[in-house]
Design a protein that fits this description.
It is built from 3 helices and 3 strands, in the order H-E-E-E-H-H. By secondary structure, the chain is α+β, with helices and mostly antiparallel strands. It has one domain. The protein has a 3-stranded antiparallel sheet with strand order 1-3-2, with helices on both faces. It is globular. 17% of the residues are buried.
């Protein structure tokens, strides 16, 4: 998890991380969306909006990806 969190901070890579990882991110630069999970852990999808925009990923895509990753 630490390496994925670091890559997200440094490169804007989107990642699925435990909710606790969100404390390492500047909320003005990197947003997270909660994802329903059937297990005792909560996870969030974290993505840098600027990096998504530069990559041509449309607004709302993060929510769609979070929906696609839902289990159950």
């Amino acid at each position: 998890m630490p390496s994925r969190a670091r890559m997200t901070r440094e490169t804007g890579l989107a990642a699925v991380l435990p909710e606790i990882a969100s404390v390492d991110f500047d909320a003005k630069k990197i947003g997270g969306k909660p994802m329903p999970w059937q297990h005792d852990r909560q996870i969030v999808l974290i993505a840098n909006p600027r990096s998504l925009d530069r990559s041509g990923i449309r607004p709302g895509a993060v929510e769609k990806l979070a929906g696609a990753l839902r289990l159950g």
